[in-house]
Amino acid sequence: MSEKLIISGGKRLVGHVSACGAKNAAVAILPAALMAEGVCTIENLPDILDVKLLNAISHELGAKVDYDSENACVKVDATEGISHEATFEMARKMRASYYYLGALLGRFGKAAIALPGGCSIGQRPIDLHLKGMSALGAEIELSEGLVKATAKGGRLKGAEIYLDTVSVGASINIMMAAAMAEGNTTIINAAKEPHVVDLANFLNSMGARIKGAGTDVIRIRGVEKLHGCTYAVIPDQIETGTLMIAAAATMGDVTIHNVIPMHMESVTAKLLEMGVHVEEGPDTIRVWADRRPRRVTIKTLPYPGFPTDLQQPISAMLCVAEGTSMVVENIFEDRFKHLGMFERMGAKCSVSGRVAVIEGVDHLKGAPVEASDLRAGAALIIAGLMAQGETQVGELRHIDRGYAHLEEKLRSLGAEIHRVG
Ligand code: EPZ
User: Fold this and answer.
1) How far is CA 310 from CA 54, 74, 237, 371, 403, in A?
2) Distance 416 CA to ligand 1 centre (A)
3) Contact 308, 356 (CB under 8 A)
4) Residue 118: its pLDDT value, please?
5) What residue owns the CA closest to ligand 1's atom 18?
6) Are 103 and 116 in contact (CB under 8 A)?
7) What is the pLDDT of residue 381?
8) Which one, 3, 6, 58, 150, has the greatest CB density within 10 A?
9) Is the dihedral of CA 24, 181, 91, 115 positive or negative?
10) Which one from 20, 40, 119, 319 is the annotated catalytic residue?
11) Nearest protein Cα to ligand 1, atom 16
12) In this predicted model, what pLDDT tens digit does every residue of 332-376 receive, in sequence order?
């Protein structure tokens, strides 16, 4: 039998909990570590499946990888013996494996990577990544599920690159490739997400010269070599948001530690609009609720807008809000699969294209549901925590990819949740 989470709903979450390191920063930093001659010590890594998979890919590529999950730390030594080809099955399983393309192409002037998989939330093309690498002088060949990129003349050359769409992945991949290119690169209309900034900071700690990360123009002066460093991953914005929403959804009172409150502003603003209380400390956020949430409109946008990754979790709360809410998903066209699962629990939802309408009901009722992707999984857990009776959440492999010990954390706050199977 495949594993399931069994949740007895209706318990208020109360207490203190800590956020882990950011998944979406870690999954860029681990491939980037292969660009260094020397040892990179990466701290505050989340204990998730994606990190384990990337460590395995780095190892298969020839790096010495010493992972200590208990201390949330890995040492990666890619000084020598690194292959530029991640063509194996493991790379195909995870979306972030495409970051090896930028990292290896930047360092060695050539790379071959299996085309990525990942969450099924829309088409998720990688045309912008490839366009950026072509602009840097790479010849790109797509065949038999592989992307092969080769720098003309053996080394990439700096260029001005305009991204038609604000893309986290393309900004990160191009930044890595350009870090070791000859000359200067400018990325215009770059993504400003905290994990884009974190990757730039990591590369700079290895000796790269990157300015402007966190704005929409990133300037990179290429260097010939990168060296090892010690670096701690930033706290996870999306895990923090998930815990904030879970606290509010259960009318609880939770303080989340090890967070960067500034990264949470769009979420905090929405929760306040819904009638939830939020109090920020220097590196803590306390969230508590004492009333039924008010209806709101959510529009997902690139950072600093409301993150698409929290659209699904917050939608769970909207199912029981006073009045009818609207959710506009501007980033991924197919990120509404969780709503059908909410309907099994008694929610009233309808979808037309990128817009969902959620009519608040008095309460949700427990039901067997399945996660269709990572954040849908988190959303279903939150729905289960709010619902009357028992909810069974299946397809946990999605949740394990990106949340570290989520059920233990929720249990420590008073949730009745356990894994079976
Ligand atoms: C990253 O995905 C995150 N993944 C996603 O997190 C997150 O939802 C997303 O950014 C948006 O914030 C990682 O960091 C590993 P994008 P990414 O490129 O990089 C279009 C999670 O749950 N686009 O910013 O794939 C694309 O279709 C996940 O943790 C192109 O058209 O997202 C989308 O509409 C899932 N061509 C928009 O850009 C391209 O070449 C933004 O996507 C690339 C993207």
Assistant:
1) 24, 28, 10, 15, 13
2) 33
3) no
4) 54
5) 167
6) no
7) 98
8) 58
9) positive
10) 119
11) 167
12) 988 999 999 999 999 999 999 999 999 999 999 999 999 999 999
Helix, strand, coil share of the chain (percent; to 5)? 35, 30, 35
- Sign, CA dihedral 242-245-250-253, equals positive
Note the pTM of the prediction, 2 decimals: 0.97
Instruction: Render the burial of 338-348: b for 16+ CB within 10 Å, e for the rest.
Output: bbebbebbbbe
Q: 304: cis peptide before it, omega within 30°?
A: yes
Say what the pLDDT of residue 277 is: 98
Mean local confidence (pLDDT), 238-251? 98
138-190 pLDDT tens trace: 999 988 788 999 999 999 999 999 999 999 999 999 999 999 999 999 999 99
Active-site annotation holds for 119: yes
Give me the sheet containing 368-370, strands edge to edge: 368-370, 390-394, 4-8, 416-420
Does ligand 1 lie within 6 Å of residue 117's CB atom?
no
DSSP 361-390: -S--B--EEE-SSHHHHHHHHHHHHHSBSE
Query: Would you state the structure tokens that stand for residue 260, as one six-digit string?
Result: 């960067």
For residue 340, give the amino acid letter: G
Residue 120 near residue 182 (C-beta atoms within 8 A): no
pLDDT of residue 117: 61
Going from the Cα of 121 to the center of ligand 1, the distance in angstroms, rounded, reads 10
**Is any atom of ligand 1 closer than 6 Å to the C-beta of 189?**
no
Q: Which positions ≥6 away from 161 have C-beta within 8 Å?
A: 131, 132, 135, 136, 174, 185, 186, 187, 188
Q: Is the CB of 244 under 6 A from ligand 1?
A: no
DSSP 291: S
Please choose from 23, 142, 147, 165 the residue to mutate so as to test ligand 1's pocket, defined by most ligand atoms within 8 A of CB.
Answer: 165
Take atom 31 of ligand 1 and give the residue whose Cα is closest.
125
**What is the average pLDDT across 275-298?**
98
